[in-house]
């Protein structure tokens, strides 16, 4: 058993080094912003796995509703255009947006980094997940991040 443990650590180190190749020197994922009617708003970084300075770091946080507790939602009009902005290269090449309202979750369609605010009044929570997937090696992620934000449709 004592011989297998160092080998396991050696294998884990090899995997970490392989995943960190060609990514960034940042300690955590870049900021994701929202652009709404020519105004820019910050999102809250949640769960992520990031490769920087030869070290992989994974952080697990609460979900969007809990993560945003006590923060004011962004006020929007029904159907208003919301655009994701990330001043970082390379850009993530996979993404997923989840909307949470009245304890129900729905995937939101995003086109050209944008989606429309809901038509119904209320507070909507969102999880914006992004991945930096390797373009040559299938299923190899160089990092991922989930950003939380809330919209209040009035």
How would you characterize this protein structure?
- By secondary structure, the protein is mainly β.
- The chain has one domain: Immunoglobulin-like (Sandwich), CATH 2.60.40.
- The chain has helices at 4-20, 64-67, and strands at 33-36, 39-42, 44-52, 55-59, 74-76, 81-85, 94-101, 104-108, 114-116, 122-133, 141-153.
- The N and C termini lie far apart (62 Å).
- Mean pLDDT is 85; it is low at 1-24.
Brief summary:
With 154 residues, the chain is mainly beta.
Keywords:
154 residues; mainly beta; Immunoglobulin-like; 7-stranded mixed beta sheet; 2 helices; globular
Provide the fold topology.
Blueprint: H1 4-20, E1 33-36, E2 39-42, E3 44-52, E4 55-59, H2 64-67, E5 74-76, E6 81-85, E7 94-101, E8 104-108, E9 114-116, E10 122-133, E11 141-153
Parallel strand pairs: 5-11
Antiparallel strand pairs: 1-2, 1-6, 3-4, 3-11, 6-9, 7-8, 7-10, 10-11
Shape: globular
Number of domains: 1
| Major sheet size, sense and barrel closure | 7 strands, mixed
- Number of helical stretches of at least 4 residues: 2
How many β-strand runs? 11
The oligomeric status of these chains comes to single chain
Mean pLDDT: 85
Instruction: Give the terminus-to-terminus CA distance.
Output: 62 Å
